[in-house]
Amino acid sequence: MKQPRIGMVLILAAILLLAACSSTDSKEQSTAWDNIKEEATIKVATSGTLYPTSYHEQETNDLTGFDVEIVKEVAQRLDLSVEFTEMGFDGMLTAVQTGKVDMAANDIGITEERKEKFALSTPYKFSYGTAIVRKDDLSGIESINDLEGKKAAGAATTNFMKLAKKKGAEEVIYDNATNEQYLRDVETGRTDVILNDVYLQRLALAAFPELDLTIHPDIQYMPSEGGLLMNKENEQLIKNVNEVIKEMLEDGTIEKLSEEFFDGANVTELPEDIEFQK
Prior knowledge:
Layout: H1 2-29, H2 32-39, E1 41-46, E2 49-50, E3 54-56, E4 63-64, H3 66-77, E5 81-86, H4 89-98, E6 103-109, H5 112-117, E7 118-120, E8 125-134, E9 151-154, H6 159-166, E10 170-173, H7 179-188, E11 193-197, H8 198-207, E12 213-215, E13 221-231, H9 235-250, H10 253-261
Parallel strand pairs: 1-5, 1-6, 9-10, 9-11
Antiparallel strand pairs: 2-3, 3-4, 6-13, 7-13, 8-11, 8-12, 8-13
């Protein structure tokens, strides 16, 4: 009687082992999109300090902005809610890479370098770079190739700071600072120049008209495309997000948001007749 009983025990153990392996395999095969759908939530990194891309309304303190509202609409069309986490730009890249968040939304430029490490969505913003300088002397800068020894303000890994460094500027690094801090430091001489997106620069100056600053009249450079940033491994998420953004471009949703947040400007198209410097 012992022999059959031992055999039965071994059979049961094998069945349990196979069941455990099957469960493990199933768990391993679940994708980031599966987890998002299961939780019905998409996790998004943004700054909360970059007007008008991602900021808090003064009256309500609610998080809003061009990129923030695009993400909210994308999530709604995918039957998801959004969980925003606010952090500096460098932290966003790490958070996407490690899976702490599913995507980053913060006026992120689409570059070949970034495409090697991340997935960038269908572009929905087209722009170019300008330079904020002191109004009285243009901070002693004549062109984009005249930054040697100047103090350029920005976040460490943005395309604009990389360009400033390439042109010989001294980097002054900020971590998730407000527009006001950036601007006042140029006015006081702590820094000399801010390289950034033309639409953001115009709105930043309009918000602080008392500052003796201006956009340099002779500096336009680096035409760019912007979108959402995701982990390259999350293929289904990337596919779904791109499909929705394409719909939003076609039905005019993103153009309306652009006009709302960029003072009537349509950022879904690159302005014509601009001579860019290299």
